[in-house]
Structure formats: structure tokens, C-alpha cells
Amino acid sequence: MQKHDNKSKRTKFKLTTLAASLLLASGTLSAQEEDARAIAERLVDEHFQNSTLSREEQIEELMWFAKAAEPFRDMDIQTVAEGLTTHVYESEVLAEAFSELTGINLTHNIIGEGDVVDTMQNQMQSGNSIYDGFVNDTDSIGTHIRYGTTINLSEAMENEWADYTLPTLDLDDFIGLQYGTGPDGSIYQLPTQQFANLYWFRHDWFTDPDLMAQFKEIYGYELGVPTNWTAYEDIAKFFTEDVGEIDGTKIYGHMDYGRRDPSLGWRFHDSWLSMAGMGSQGVPFGNPVDDWGIRVNEDSQPVGASVSRGGATNSPASVFAMQKAVDWLRDYAPEEAQGMTFGEAGPVPAQGHIAQQIFWYTAFTADMTDPSVAVTDDEGNPLWRMAPSPTGPYWEEGMKVGYQDVGAWTFFDSTPEDRRTAAWLFAQFTVAKTTSLEKLMHGLTPIRESDIFSEQMTEMAPKLGGLVEFYRSPNESNWTPTGTNVPDYPRMAPLWWQNLAPVMSGEVTPQEGLDKLAADLDSTMNRLARANVFDSYAPVLNEEQDPQVWLDQEGAPKAKLDNEMPQGTTVPYDEMMEAWMAAGTRQE
């Protein structure tokens, strides 16, 4: 499902029949309804003044929650999410508001991302109900469609949740619904936050006439937003070696991290290989070969990650991508970056000595816009911008361009139905049009197109360095999470950092590390299939054969290019943004 296909279907928000029925024909309300309306009015005025709905529409939406929650009043419900700013807002503001409005004692727990995955895996395998609802990344969609324990939201909304699904939920308005959708078209996960990885650069340096002239003299083309990896490397070398320092401060043309740590896995399975062009064409993920290098057959069954089985995890494109990761970290990033984790490296560009970063999460936007940091001017305007990341030499038109993280509400059949339904009401509360825009303005992780095109975001846009413009273009849909080819994300994701950390430290070559990774992915899929743990879409591995048989065929895996570093190409930022926005059409 693509969000832009649904624009024509959208209609203006109207009072729902259920919400309207709360108003008695005489124009008076029962005492309980009066209480609910008073709470709803106060919540809107105190917490949710920013919304794409009118105040009265917000109040009616909140009164629907109060009415629908009556069977669950006084229940204690526990939900869980990782510690992003957005989820902290859900925990501290939305959970309290929901509890007051509905009488459900809702606790939205904040724990580490790894702990969320471990607890979810425990609940799926044990059948014990640990939490009543999870916010789990849609990277695990391949897991959820296969184990038969995740609630099919599409079916639930038509059946047991028919009376408990917000009539104004407006699924067509969600920008990332396709990422929590299975091959059968059913929704398994409902997005509650979303952010992308993009290219980040110092706009003030890139537009400095002296630096522009110096770059042109040395490299023979214009300093601008790089559109391929050759230009990114040239710019990294330029700022690190040719410029060296600005205003007496040592500067670097690249930033990354390389410590042996689970977060190193995110660095690579979050689409690094596909940015180089390793996989197949297709969005939201390559078909038949995805951004992990896993090939599936026509029935969505994984058949292998190794080139010898038709996969691409250890293909020439992947080797090229890993070699560049090693070289750039060593040659153009601060020396201490090699010992950093994701969390430690994230704030570094805000310190003012980094020229560009090819792979930067927009979740750091709020940190980059703080007036106290070195990369904003005296008025608090960003000296930096974000733009589409450059693509590698194996990339082809029609492939995904980068990664998006989509945290989404996920429920399991091990949770008693009444508790699960109460948690479903809270999940909808966190994404309802009454609350979603205010949440976006706090966490900058959009989920609704109506919010992205709101007047409030138009007003905020100049301070956000390109975030709003990114999400207003349909090209945004080319940045996608891990897809359905990965059959067991919790078990398979750790294989990335375990095998690629030795590559980053120089203990093994990129080819050796990727060969081991591909073999481990295949071994894990084969073992799980033999254990008969999957309810559907189980792996059926291809027999191994000479890798050249696959490399000689069309598409992924792709044979090694004669020239992996063609002429560098750049585009001026303003020109790039003009083309970017021209691709989009403002929603009606």
C-alpha cells in the first residue's frame, strides 16, 4: 500500500455517529457524560491545542474513547516502548490523559530497545502475558507474519475490535502502514512513530564561496549535495585533508561509529548494503532480494542469503559497501569514532567539527535544533541541512534509497482479550488526530500525512533543516524498514554486529566477514525451518551452487563492476530541494 494512492479517497473529518449519539436529543448530557466532556475539554485545552481537528471535533473524539472504555474501567494495563522522545511523551503525557479520561489505569513503560525485543520474544515463545501491548519496530514484520502469535489487526478490527476501533482512525492517513503489512495485505502493526536515515551536511560550509572555489579547483566539479558515493568520498577527503581546520578547529569530512556493540548491527542491516545497490528493485523492499540480501521465492519463502543460494549478503556490492565503511571511518572521521557506539556518535555532529554524514538518523533532529549547540546560528536557525543520501554504484532506479524506523503497536494472542482490547484503545489514543500533531511537535517522528501538511509544521519547517520537506514528498516512501523476507528478526539481527565488528576493526576482510554473515543467516533460517516453528512462509533454502551461476543472471546478486568509483556528481541543495518538492502534491 502506498500512501499517495489513497489521497483521493480521503474525506474531511466528520463527527462520528457514535460520538454524536453521546449528545442527547434534548441537548443535555447525563452526569457521566458531563464528566467525560469536562475532562475532554480540559485535556484539549491543556495538552492538545495543536491538532488538524477543530476543538469540537477533538472533544467528540475523546468522548468516544471515554464511552468505548467503560467495560475496562479500573483495569490496570501495562504497555511498553523504547526510550525515544516520542515514547517518553506518550508515557508522561498521553498515558496520564488516557487514564483520567477512561478510568483505565494505564502505565506506558519505557525500557531499552533490546529489552523490548527480548521481552517480546519471551512472550511470543512462552505464551505468558508480560505486557498488554508493545511498541515494536516494523523491522520484525517478517517475524510477526510467520509465528502465528501476533494479532492480525485487520481481522481484529472487523471482528472482536469492531466496536473498539476509533471510527476516525483514518488508516489511509498513516504514512507507514505498508511497513506493518504482510504479504496477504493484512495489517499486523500500527505505526506510532517514524524516522529516517538521511544525508546530513554543513550548509554554511558548502555554500561558502572560498570553500566552493577551492573544491572546484581540486576536484573539477562543484561542491554540493553528493548524489553518488564517489562525490561523498571526495568531499570527505576535501574537508579532512585539504581544508583541515576552520577557525582554528580541526574538522572532519565524515562521521560514523565502529565499536563492537549491538548498535553496530543497526549501522549495517539498516540498509547500508542496499544504499550501495546490493538488492533488487522494489519498494518497500527489494523483490526477490531484500536489503539484508535474503532472497525469497514466489510464495514469500526465504531461499537463501548467500550468493551460492541466490542471495546477495556476501555479493560484490556488499563487499564494496563494507570496504567503504572501513575506509571512511579510518581516513575521514575523528579517531575516537572507531570506539563509539550509536548513542555516543549520534550527538557528535552537533559539536560543530563534522562536515557531513552519509547515514544520519532524523531522530537526532531535536538535538540539532537546540539553540545552544554549535550548529545553529544566533537566531537558532540550523547551519546544517538534511538531504537524500547518495547512492552507490550498484544502485538502480526503483530500488529503496535508505532506511526508516517505524515503531508500531503490536499485540499477541497470549494477552487476555479484555486486557488486549484496553491496550488497543490506548494505542489508538496515541495516534488519534486529537493527539498526533502535538506528539509530532514534541518528538518530530511523524505518522500522519495530515499532520505533515499542517500549518504548524509549515511554521516549524525552517528550523528543522529539511525534515518537513522530506516527509512532504512522495519520494519519502523510498526509505523503508526491514521487510518481510527476514523470518526471525530477534534471532537474526545480532548476527550482523557479531560478524561485521571484526571487519570494522580490521581483523578480517569485508569478504570474509560477509561470507560468515551470509552462512550464519542461512544456517539460522535452515535450523528454524527444521524446528517447524513457523506458522507460515517458512524458509526453504536453495541448494548451493557455483556463485557465478547467480552472478551471471539478471538482477541481484550483481556481478562486480569494472569501475566502482565513477565520476563524482553533486547538485546544489536549493536545486535538489526544488526537484524533491516538485515530485509531491499537497494533499487536498
From TrEMBL:
Localisation per UniProt entry: Periplasm
Xref: Pfam families: SBP_bac_1
GO MF, any single term: transmembrane transporter activity
Protein family according to the UniProt entry: Belongs to the bacterial solute-binding protein 1 family.
Species for this entry: Vreelandella glaciei
Key words of the record: Cell membrane, Lipoprotein, Membrane, Palmitate, Signal
The UniProt record lists the keyword Signal: yes
SUPFAM superfamilies in the cross-refs: Periplasmic binding protein-like II (SSF53850)
Signal peptide: 1-31
InterPro entries, per the entry: ABC_tp_sb, Bact_solute-bd_prot1, SBP
Protein's name in the database: Carbohydrate ABC transporter substrate-binding protein
Gene3D superfamilies: Periplasmic binding protein-like II
Record-linked PANTHER family: ARABINOSE-BINDING PROTEIN-RELATED (PTHR43649), POLYGALACTURONAN_RHAMNOGALACTURONAN-BINDING PROTEIN YTCQ (PTHR43649:SF33)
Transmembrane regions: none
Cellular compartments per GO CC: periplasmic space
